[in-house]
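Entry type: protein chain
Record version: 2
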Amino acid sequence: MPRIWVFCRRTKLRGIPLAIALAARRGNAAQAHIAAEPKCSGFTLLEMLVVLALLALMTGLVAPWSSGWLMGARERGLESDLRAYLEAMPIRAFHAGEARQVEAEELLSAISDRSGHVILKLDKPLRYAANGFAEGGKIEIIRGARRDVWLVEAVSGQVREAP
């Protein structure tokens, strides 16, 4: 139903059905009192400020937790990308039909760590033969205070955490 908008006494905008407003203009007494005094309902400024303060309080409580959760999710994603890249290297070497050698810089560029907070150290370059066999090696992953060591198994190229 179409509505027209009028201001009531407390300067709040209220929609009134068009039929009622037209009846009030025509002088229909039964419906004119409805259009003459629209009921004002809404929120006061104090109520709105209380709601905003509660939202700010809830945001202040949740924001530190969620930022830590996001950082953890980002780190798990980087680990997953690195593991997948390493485990696919024997297959890549086999399909290319040529031996491959992987340095720490190539691994960092493969996981696309833009923050620069991940440091990779290899005991020796990781080598993969043309037939897909891995030579094996050790990878040290340093992220701030956290340090993980992974082992790349010889022959299969599978990655596992060091005991």
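Comment: Helices lie at 18-26, 29-36, 45-96, 104-111.
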